[in-house]
Amino acid sequence: MIQGLTARNVTGLVLAGGLAVIATAWGFQLIGGYVPCKLCLEQRVPYYVGLPVTALALLLITTQRTVLALFALLGVAAIFAYGSGLGIYQAGAEWQFWAGPNDCGGGSAAPNSAANMLQALQSTRIVSCTEASWRMLGLSFAGWNAVASGGLALLALVAAFLLKRAENKATVNA
Fold first, then answer.
1. I need a labelling partner for 164 at 20 to 30 A (CA). Which of 59, 72, 85, 122 fits?
2. Is residue 1 in some structural domain?
3. How far is CA 85 from each of CA 6, 46, 104, 131, rounded to the nearest angstrom?
4. DSSP state of 1
5. pLDDT of 123-145, one tens digit each?
6. What residues make up the domain containing 36?
7. ∠ at Cα 97 (100, 129), nearest 5°?
8. What is the C-alpha separation between 62 and 30, in angstroms, rounded?
9. In the chain, how many domains are there?
């Protein structure tokens, strides 16, 4: 086994990796100008839920509450597996493997006056869930999210395994 590979370290890696992914998504939106579609925004929810649970798991590991930490890590794995499924669904819709959602689009809010309506119509960008706005190495934002979320789910399972193994060793040595 790799030296220093502990449940605490791997859980910390899940937290750091998840924060990097969601920060990247926000960076592409705020700095890069990419407008997320409805499904893209839905793919952020597992990060908003999973990262606090990951931080809780890290706290529980640190305070030696192993059983609760184990359940939290299994929850984190399930949350990010769901996020990976959302990414796979959208990426498949982008490649026309299956139909995407009918109600998926984005843009800005309605204009606050009739005078601004024409200007708003000209500047509003409708974002489709079935068209990739960017690709790198053949994967869109959704595809990369599927990979990242799947990796985070796998790391959470590794952390849970390491935690359980450490608990079993402590029980045998006691």
1. 85
2. no
3. 27, 11, 17, 18
4. -
5. 555 566 666 666 668 777 888 89
6. 7-173
7. 30
8. 35
9. 1
- Give, as one character, the DSSP assignment of residue 71: H
Looking at residue 52, its amino acid is: P
Rounded Cα gap, residues 132 and 142, in angstroms: 8
Instruction: Indicate whether 20 belongs to any domain.
Output: yes
Instruction: List, for residues 10-38, the tens digit of each pLDDT value.
Output: 999 999 999 999 999 898 788 888 788 88
Quick one: CA dihedral 14, 37, 81, 88, positive or negative? negative
Does residue 31 form part of some domain? Answer: yes
Taking a C-beta distance cutoff of 8 angstroms, is the pair 77, 153 a contact?
Answer: yes
158 closest CA partner among 3, 1, 2, 7: 7
74 part of a folded domain: yes
Q: What is the DSSP letter of 114?
A: G
**Beta-carbon neighbour count of residue 125 at 10 Å?**
12
Q: At 34, list the tokens.
A: 């990419």
What is the C-alpha separation between 76 and 17, in angstroms, rounded? 13
